[in-house]
Amino acid sequence: MRKIISFIHISLDGFVAGPNGEMDWIKVDEEIFDDVAKRISESDTALYGRVTYQMMENYWPTAADSTTASKHDIEHSKWYKDVHKVVLSKTIKETGLTNTTIISDNLSDSINEIKQQEGSDILVFGSPTATHSLIQLNLIDGYWLFVNPIILGQDIPLFVDIKDKIKLQLLSTQQFTSGVTALSYTVDRV
Protein backbone atom coordinates (compact mmCIF):
# COMPACT_ATOMS: atom_id res chain seq x y z
CA MET A 1 0.00 0.00 0.00
CA ARG A 2 1.18 3.50 -0.81
CA LYS A 3 1.96 5.85 2.06
CA ILE A 4 1.07 9.51 2.51
CA ILE A 5 4.05 11.57 3.65
CA SER A 6 3.63 15.16 4.88
CA PHE A 7 6.53 17.20 3.48
CA ILE A 8 6.65 20.54 5.26
CA HIS A 9 8.81 23.32 6.68
CA ILE A 10 8.13 24.00 10.33
CA SER A 11 9.39 26.45 12.96
CA LEU A 12 11.05 25.13 16.10
CA ASP A 13 7.81 25.81 17.99
CA GLY A 14 5.62 23.90 15.51
CA PHE A 15 4.22 26.51 13.14
CA VAL A 16 4.07 26.08 9.36
CA ALA A 17 2.91 29.50 8.13
CA GLY A 18 2.01 32.97 9.25
CA PRO A 19 -1.64 33.90 9.88
CA ASN A 20 -2.00 34.85 6.20
CA GLY A 21 0.10 31.98 4.90
CA GLU A 22 3.43 33.86 5.08
CA MET A 23 6.49 31.68 4.57
CA ASP A 24 9.20 34.35 4.48
CA TRP A 25 10.87 32.80 7.54
CA ILE A 26 11.65 29.51 5.73
CA LYS A 27 15.31 28.95 4.91
CA VAL A 28 16.01 27.29 1.57
CA ASP A 29 19.21 27.06 -0.40
CA GLU A 30 20.83 24.84 -3.04
CA GLU A 31 21.80 22.22 -0.43
CA ILE A 32 18.18 21.86 0.70
CA PHE A 33 16.88 22.01 -2.89
CA ASP A 34 19.23 19.15 -3.86
CA ASP A 35 18.05 17.05 -0.91
CA VAL A 36 14.40 17.72 -1.73
CA ALA A 37 14.97 16.84 -5.39
CA LYS A 38 16.38 13.46 -4.38
CA ARG A 39 13.49 12.78 -2.02
CA ILE A 40 10.69 13.75 -4.41
CA SER A 41 12.19 12.10 -7.49
CA GLU A 42 10.95 8.77 -6.14
CA SER A 43 7.34 9.97 -5.89
CA ASP A 44 4.74 9.99 -8.64
CA THR A 45 1.89 11.72 -6.76
CA ALA A 46 1.68 15.07 -4.98
CA LEU A 47 -1.24 16.03 -2.75
CA TYR A 48 -2.16 19.67 -2.17
CA GLY A 49 -4.83 21.74 -0.53
CA ARG A 50 -6.52 24.27 -2.81
CA VAL A 51 -4.46 27.29 -1.75
CA THR A 52 -1.09 25.54 -2.15
CA TYR A 53 -2.16 23.95 -5.44
CA GLN A 54 -3.16 27.32 -6.90
CA MET A 55 0.15 28.80 -5.75
CA MET A 56 2.04 25.90 -7.38
CA GLU A 57 0.00 26.14 -10.60
CA ASN A 58 0.80 29.83 -10.86
CA TYR A 59 4.55 29.17 -10.82
CA TRP A 60 5.83 25.66 -11.54
CA PRO A 61 4.39 24.82 -14.97
CA THR A 62 6.43 27.63 -16.58
CA ALA A 63 9.25 28.11 -14.04
CA ALA A 64 11.80 26.38 -16.31
CA ASP A 65 10.98 28.71 -19.22
CA SER A 66 12.60 31.77 -17.64
CA THR A 67 16.06 32.72 -18.89
CA THR A 68 17.08 33.11 -15.23
CA ALA A 69 15.67 29.73 -14.12
CA SER A 70 17.87 28.02 -11.56
CA LYS A 71 18.81 24.33 -11.68
CA HIS A 72 16.19 23.72 -9.00
CA ASP A 73 13.51 25.61 -10.97
CA ILE A 74 14.21 23.56 -14.11
CA GLU A 75 14.24 20.21 -12.30
CA HIS A 76 11.21 20.91 -10.11
CA SER A 77 9.21 22.33 -13.02
CA LYS A 78 9.77 19.11 -14.98
CA TRP A 79 8.82 16.98 -11.96
CA TYR A 80 5.73 19.09 -11.30
CA LYS A 81 4.52 18.73 -14.90
CA ASP A 82 4.96 14.93 -14.77
CA VAL A 83 3.65 14.17 -11.27
CA HIS A 84 0.00 13.29 -10.73
CA LYS A 85 -1.61 15.96 -8.58
CA VAL A 86 -4.37 15.27 -6.05
CA VAL A 87 -6.11 18.41 -4.76
CA LEU A 88 -8.44 18.64 -1.79
CA SER A 89 -10.96 21.33 -2.68
CA LYS A 90 -14.67 21.98 -2.54
CA THR A 91 -14.46 24.84 -5.06
CA ILE A 92 -12.10 23.75 -7.88
CA LYS A 93 -13.77 21.89 -10.74
CA GLU A 94 -11.88 19.03 -12.40
CA THR A 95 -12.78 19.99 -15.96
CA GLY A 96 -9.82 20.92 -18.12
CA LEU A 97 -7.13 20.02 -15.57
CA THR A 98 -4.23 17.90 -16.77
CA ASN A 99 -2.91 15.03 -14.66
CA THR A 100 -4.95 16.26 -11.68
CA THR A 101 -7.62 14.67 -9.49
CA ILE A 102 -9.90 16.83 -7.34
CA ILE A 103 -11.31 15.38 -4.12
CA SER A 104 -14.20 17.42 -2.78
CA ASP A 105 -15.97 14.96 -0.49
CA ASN A 106 -15.62 11.48 1.06
CA LEU A 107 -12.01 12.37 1.90
CA SER A 108 -11.18 9.19 3.80
CA ASP A 109 -12.62 6.82 1.19
CA SER A 110 -11.12 8.75 -1.72
CA ILE A 111 -7.65 8.91 -0.18
CA ASN A 112 -7.70 5.24 0.82
CA GLU A 113 -8.68 4.35 -2.74
CA ILE A 114 -5.65 6.28 -4.06
CA LYS A 115 -3.40 4.60 -1.47
CA GLN A 116 -4.50 1.21 -2.86
CA GLN A 117 -3.47 2.08 -6.43
CA GLU A 118 -0.11 1.16 -7.92
CA GLY A 119 2.57 3.77 -7.41
CA SER A 120 5.02 5.26 -4.96
CA ASP A 121 4.49 7.37 -1.85
CA ILE A 122 2.10 10.31 -2.03
CA LEU A 123 3.71 13.55 -0.88
CA VAL A 124 1.66 16.28 0.81
CA PHE A 125 3.41 19.58 0.13
CA GLY A 126 2.75 22.30 2.70
CA SER A 127 -1.02 22.64 2.65
CA PRO A 128 -1.67 23.10 6.39
CA THR A 129 -5.47 22.91 6.17
CA ALA A 130 -5.38 19.75 4.04
CA THR A 131 -2.74 18.26 6.35
CA HIS A 132 -4.93 18.99 9.40
CA SER A 133 -7.81 17.10 7.76
CA LEU A 134 -5.58 14.15 6.85
CA ILE A 135 -4.12 13.98 10.37
CA GLN A 136 -7.59 14.02 11.94
CA LEU A 137 -8.61 11.09 9.70
CA ASN A 138 -5.39 9.19 10.55
CA LEU A 139 -4.33 9.17 6.89
CA ILE A 140 -0.76 10.50 7.27
CA ASP A 141 1.82 7.68 7.34
CA GLY A 142 4.95 9.76 7.78
CA TYR A 143 6.47 13.21 8.10
CA TRP A 144 9.44 14.89 6.46
CA LEU A 145 9.85 17.94 8.64
CA PHE A 146 12.32 20.66 7.74
CA VAL A 147 12.77 22.34 11.13
CA ASN A 148 13.82 25.96 10.67
CA PRO A 149 15.84 27.62 13.45
CA ILE A 150 13.22 30.17 14.36
CA ILE A 151 10.57 30.57 17.03
CA LEU A 152 7.46 32.27 15.66
CA GLY A 153 5.36 32.27 18.83
CA GLN A 154 2.09 32.13 16.93
CA ASP A 155 0.65 31.56 13.47
CA ILE A 156 -0.65 28.37 11.80
CA PRO A 157 0.42 25.24 13.73
CA LEU A 158 1.09 21.89 12.09
CA PHE A 159 -0.69 19.89 14.76
CA VAL A 160 -4.17 21.01 15.87
CA ASP A 161 -7.16 19.22 17.36
CA ILE A 162 -5.24 15.98 17.89
CA LYS A 163 -7.66 13.63 19.61
CA ASP A 164 -5.37 10.62 20.10
CA LYS A 165 -1.62 10.43 20.52
CA ILE A 166 0.32 9.88 17.32
CA LYS A 167 3.40 7.77 17.99
CA LEU A 168 6.29 8.27 15.60
CA GLN A 169 9.50 6.43 14.82
CA LEU A 170 12.48 8.54 13.75
CA LEU A 171 13.92 7.24 10.47
CA SER A 172 16.64 9.81 9.81
CA THR A 173 18.00 13.26 10.58
CA GLN A 174 20.02 15.59 8.43
CA GLN A 175 21.59 18.89 9.42
CA PHE A 176 22.04 21.53 6.72
CA THR A 177 24.61 24.31 6.83
CA SER A 178 21.76 26.87 6.93
CA GLY A 179 20.77 25.56 10.37
CA VAL A 180 17.69 23.72 9.08
CA THR A 181 17.36 20.14 10.33
CA ALA A 182 15.42 17.57 8.31
CA LEU A 183 13.63 14.94 10.40
CA SER A 184 12.02 11.93 8.77
CA TYR A 185 9.41 10.02 10.78
CA THR A 186 7.06 7.15 10.15
CA VAL A 187 3.78 6.84 12.04
CA ASP A 188 3.92 3.88 14.40
CA ARG A 189 0.58 2.17 13.90
CA VAL A 190 1.34 -0.70 16.31
TrEMBL record:
This is Dihydrofolate reductase. It comes from the Bacteria. Pfam families: RibD_C. GO terms for biological process: riboflavin biosynthetic process. It comes from Pedobacter hiemivivus. Transmembrane segments: none annotated. Residues 2-181 form the Bacterial bifunctional deaminase-reductase C-terminal domain. GO terms for molecular function: 5-amino-6-(5-phosphoribosylamino)uracil reductase activity.
